């Protein structure tokens, strides 16, 4: 799946070129992987814009960048054997050649392969470092997370619960809200499509918000900023409500509440913590194994040609938990 042109606003089918090419042959020190699970990530929208960011934009004609789990089907690499499952940035394609750099071995005893793209992969690590390091979480904090029923949000809320916090999730629709409170242990959930978020935050976080973990930006960020506790930490993880904007990003109109509440607002990129992935992955795997973190995944079956449609699901809120495409 190659990028055919730069999208304007929402990504359209015409922005992609699904091409058929010969399967590459691995050279010395390389292996060939066949894609089993493809990760769909909101950040992909940003990678399509031609503007400076934390990663270079995907070039026109380039295979779309993506994390995936592949099965090694041919190998000239001493450390990777045929039949193994590995995860890495192999792109939106059926086959990929790799020299093994940045590749993580999937341990089926630890978790399902798809979980290496979700709770045990980039979204789980984002939740872990965003909440514990950037959010400087403390026991007893009141934590509010937006995009709460998504890949990152479900893990943020559950980590906060196991650390002894009060957790309020903001998500779209009654089913997602019920999942948060009835299955994932959140103390309260706010359906931003049906409720007045400001009023609901007032009701569910009467003492104010100590950590606001923001996945969506826009009006919900504005609402959360009105309810900060003293010395609150606002973690800027993402702003999916703004990614398809054709105009400027909507900034918080009430940022002075940071001043009044002596609060801190800090952005981060999970890659900043790459050296500490092994320790975080071990801890996340332990929590998953003990049932303290329930893994929520939304698996769509299809082929690489279903990638554009699957990507669109994220922006319409059609996924619950980590969205992955199982490539048959
Ligand atoms: P999710 O699984 O949360 O999927 C996206 C969700 O966003 C949808 O299900 C939808 O849920 C919600 N959404 C979509 N449009 C809107 C909107 N206009 N307003 C409010 N909510 C909306 O995705 P991820 O967990 O993978 O990513 C969550 C956030 O984390 C993203 O902003 C992403 O960019 C960011 N991120 C940041 C990283 C970093 O290093 N800083 C790393 C990884 C992710 P609903 O039905 O509730 O609206």
Protein structure class: alpha/beta
Mean model confidence by pLDDT? 97
| Low-pLDDT segments | none
Share of residues in strands: 15-25%
Under CATH, the homologous superfamily of the largest domain reads NAD(P)-binding Rossmann-like Domain
Helical proportion? 25-40%
Ligands: NADPH dihydro-nicotinamide-adenine-dinucleotide phosphate
Please count the beta strands (DSSP E, at least 2 residues each). Answer: 15
* Distance between the first and last residues' Cα: 16 Å
Largest pleated sheet: 7 strands, mixed
As for the CATH topology of the largest domain, it is Rossmann fold
Count the helices. How many? 9
Number of domains as seen in the coordinates: 2
Shape: globular
Question: H/E series, N to C?
Answer: EEEHEEEEHEHEHEHEHEHEHEHE
GO molecular function, one term: oxidoreductase activity, acting on the CH-CH group of donors, NAD or NADP as acceptor
Organism: Streptomyces rubellomurinus (strain ATCC 31215)
Domain Enoyl reductase (ER): 9-325
Pfam families: ADH_N_2, ADH_zinc_N
